[in-house]
C-alpha cells in the first residue's frame, strides 16, 4: 500500500441533501429545496406539517454526522490519515462554505445517493460546480455505488433481519394461521409470546406447502421522481432509466435472498414514495400506499417495507413510511414491519472506504504517478469497472433546467 493510500486527495467530503433541525428552519429549507421547481404551495404546507410532527427536526443531519464518524473510525482502523467533512445542498454546512474553507485542495466526494438520476447525481455535480467557481478546488467523486457488492450486502442484511422479525412475530401470534384480531391485540399478544420463548428459530421452520408464510408481502421502496427524470437517468447511450433500473435490480437481489433464506416464493415488488410536483406530471408509480392496498387485497397479512432507495433514515422514511404507510397498513389489517436503512452498517462503511481507495488509485493511475503495486491497481480498477463511470459522461442524468457548471464529469474542470 502506498504511504498515502488516498493520495492525491487532501480530504473526503460526504455530500448530502441536508434537512432542517428545528421549526424555524423548516419553511426556509422547503423554499430552498423547491426554488423554481413548480411544487404547489399546498404541497409545501403539507410537507411542513410532516416536519412539524418531529418538532421540525429531520434525522438526516444526525445520521450523516454519524456516517462521517463511522468513516473516520474505519479510516483510522486502516491507518489512513485523511479528514472527512460533511457538506449539504440544502442546509448548513453548505457545499460552498465547506469548499471555501478547504481551498486550495483536491477533494473526493461521497454522495449519500447511490442511484443515478438528476436529483441524486447530476444535481450534486452542479452543487459542486457552482460552489467551486472561483476557488482553487479539484474534485472527484465515487461512482454511483448502488451495485457495489458491500452496499448490496448491507441492504440485503437489513431486509433479511426485518423479514426474520416479521415471521417471528407472526409465528408467535399465530395471526396468520387463524383469523387476525385487531392489530393492537395481535401486537400485545406478540409481546407476551416473545417473552415466553425466543423467536430466533424462525428460519428453521420447514416450509411445506401448507405453511402460511406466503401471506407475507415484501415491498421495496424508493423516492419517486418524475417519469421524464427517470427516462433521462444515466447515460443516454444506455437507454436512460438508470434510476428505476438500478432500484429494480436491488429489489430483485434482496427478494431472491429473502426467498432463499426463508424458503419463500416472493416476486420482486418495487413501489415509490414521496411524490410531489404538479398532479398532471407523471411520476414513477405505484405509490407505496396503493401497493399496500393491493397486497392486502391479495390476501397478505404481514408486510415488510424495505426502503432500499435510502441510505439513512430521513423524513421520507420516518414520515412517509413509518408514519403514513404504517398507519395505512394497520388500517388494512396488515402487520407492518420496516427494514432498517444501512446507516452506519460496518460493511457499508468499509465498502465506501474501499471505493475511495479504488478511486484514488484510478486518479494516480490517470496522472501517471509512481505505481508501487500493480496488483492493487488492477484489483481497484476492476472494482470501478463493474460500476457506472465515476466521471459522468456528457448528458448523463441531464435535465430540462438551465445549464449550470458541473464537476466530476468527463468534460468538466477537475
Ligand atoms: C431521488 C431523490 C432523493 C433520493 C436521493 C437523495 O438522497 O438525494 C431525494 C432525497 C431527499 N429528498 C428530501 C426532501 C425533499 N425532497 C423534495 C422534493 C423532491 N425530491 C426529489 C427526488 C429525490 N429526493 C424530487 C424529484 C423532488 C421534486 C422537487 C425537485 O425536483 O427537486 C422536497 C420538496 C417537498 C416535496 O415535494 O416533498 C423535500 C422537502 C430529503 C431530505 C428529507 C429530510 O429532511 O429528512 C432527501 C434526503
Ligand atoms: Fe426529495
TrEMBL record:
<feature type="binding site">
    <location>
        <position position="124"/>
    </location>
    <ligand>
        <name>Fe-coproporphyrin III</name>
    </ligand>
</feature>
<keyword id="KW-0408">Iron</keyword>
<dbReference type="InterPro" id="IPR033644">
    <property type="entry name" value="Ferrochelatase_C"/>
</dbReference>
<protein>
    <recommendedName>
        <fullName>Coproporphyrin III ferrochelatase</fullName>
        <ecNumber>4.99.1.9</ecNumber>
    </recommendedName>
</protein>
<feature type="binding site">
    <location>
        <position position="223"/>
    </location>
    <ligand>
        <name>Fe(2+)</name>
    </ligand>
</feature>
<feature type="region of interest" description="Disordered">
    <location>
        <begin position="172"/>
        <end position="209"/>
    </location>
</feature>
<feature type="binding site">
    <location>
        <position position="58"/>
    </location>
    <ligand>
        <name>Fe-coproporphyrin III</name>
    </ligand>
</feature>
<feature type="compositionally biased region" description="Low complexity">
    <location>
        <begin position="182"/>
        <end position="207"/>
    </location>
</feature>
<comment type="function">
    <text>Involved in coproporphyrin-dependent heme b biosynthesis. Catalyzes the insertion of ferrous iron into coproporphyrin III to form Fe-coproporphyrin III.</text>
</comment>
<feature type="binding site">
    <location>
        <position position="316"/>
    </location>
    <ligand>
        <name>Fe(2+)</name>
    </ligand>
</feature>
<comment type="similarity">
    <text>Belongs to the ferrochelatase family.</text>
</comment>
<dbReference type="Pfam" id="PF00762">
    <property type="entry name" value="Ferrochelatase"/>
</dbReference>
<comment type="pathway">
    <text>Porphyrin-containing compound metabolism; protoheme biosynthesis.</text>
</comment>
<keyword id="KW-0456">Lyase</keyword>
<keyword id="KW-0350">Heme biosynthesis</keyword>
<keyword id="KW-0479">Metal-binding</keyword>
<dbReference type="InterPro" id="IPR001015">
    <property type="entry name" value="Ferrochelatase"/>
</dbReference>
<keyword id="KW-0627">Porphyrin biosynthesis</keyword>
<dbReference type="InterPro" id="IPR033659">
    <property type="entry name" value="Ferrochelatase_N"/>
</dbReference>
<keyword id="KW-0963">Cytoplasm</keyword>
<feature type="region of interest" description="Disordered">
    <location>
        <begin position="392"/>
        <end position="414"/>
    </location>
</feature>
Amino acid at each position: 500500500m502506498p504511504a498515502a493510500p488516498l493520495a492525491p486527495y487532501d480530504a473526503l467530503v460526504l455530500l448530502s441533501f441536508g434537512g432542517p433541525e428545528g421549526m424555524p428552519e423548516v419553511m426556509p429549507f422547503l423554499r430552498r429545496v423547491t426554488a423554481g421547481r413548480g411544487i404547489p404551495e399546498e404541497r409545501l404546507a403539507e410537507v411542513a406539517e410532516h416536519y412539524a410532527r418531529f418538532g421540525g427536526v429531520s434525522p438526516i443531519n444526525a445520521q450523516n454526522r454519524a456516517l462521517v464518524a463511522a468513516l473516520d473510525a474505519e479510516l483510522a482502523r486502516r491507518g489512513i490519515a485523511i479528514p472527512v467533512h460533511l457538506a449539504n445542498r440544502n442546509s448548513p454546512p453548505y457545499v460552498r462554505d465547506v469548499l471555501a474553507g478547504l481551498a486550495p485542495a483536491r477533494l473526493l466526494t461521497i454522495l449519500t445517493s447511490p442511484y443515478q438520476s438528476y436529483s441524486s447525481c447530476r444535481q450534486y455535480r452542479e452543487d459542486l460546480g457552482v460552489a467551486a467557481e472561483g476557488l482553487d478546488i479539484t474534485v472527484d467523486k465515487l461512482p454511483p455505488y448502488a451495485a457495489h457488492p458491500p452496499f448490496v450486502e448491507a441492504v440485503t442484511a437489513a431486509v433479511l433481519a426485518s423479514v426474520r422479525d416479521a415471521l417471528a412475530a407472526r409465528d408467535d401470534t399465530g395471526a396468520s394461521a387463524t383469523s387476525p384480531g385487531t392489530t393492537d391485540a395481535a401486537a400485545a399478544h406478540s409481546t407476551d409470546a416473545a417473552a415466553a420463548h425466543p423467536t430466533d428459530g424462525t428460519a428453521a421452520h420447514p416450509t411445506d406447502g401448507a405453511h402460511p408464510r406466503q401471506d407475507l408481502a415484501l415491498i421495496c421502496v424508493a423516492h419517486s421522481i418524475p417519469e421524464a427524470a427517470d427516462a433521462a437517468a444515466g447515460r443516454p447511450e444506455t437507454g436512460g432509466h438508470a434510476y428505476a433500473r438500478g432500484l429494480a435490480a436491488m429489489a430483485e437481489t434482496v427478494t431472491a435472498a429473502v426467498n432463499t433464506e426463508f424458503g419463500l416464493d416472493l416476486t420482486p415488488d418495487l413501489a415509490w414514495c414521496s411524490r410531489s410536483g404538479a398532479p398532471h406530471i407523471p411520476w414513477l408509480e405505484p405509490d407505496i400506499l396503493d401497493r399496500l392496498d393491493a397486497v392486502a387485497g391479495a390476501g397478505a397479512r404481514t408486510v415488510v417495507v424495505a426502503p432500499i432507495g435510502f441510505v439513512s433514515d430521513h423524513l421520507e422514511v420516518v414520515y412517509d413510511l413509518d408514519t403514513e404507510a404504517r398507519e395505512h397498513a394497520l388500517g388494512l389489517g396488515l402487520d407492518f414491519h420496516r427494514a432498517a436503512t444501512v446507516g452506519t452498517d460496518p460493511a457499508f462503511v468499509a465498502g465506501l472506504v474501499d471505493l475511495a481507495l479504488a478511486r484514488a488509485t484510478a486518479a494516480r493511475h490517470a496522472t501517471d504517478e509512481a505505481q508501487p503495486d500493480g496488483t492493487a491497481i488492477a484489483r481497484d480498477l476492476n472494482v470501478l469497472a463493474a460500476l457506472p463511470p465515476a466521471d459522468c459522461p456528457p448528458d448523463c442524468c441531464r435535465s430540462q433546467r438551465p445549464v449550470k457548471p458541473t464537476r466530476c464529469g468527463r468534460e468538466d474542470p477537475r
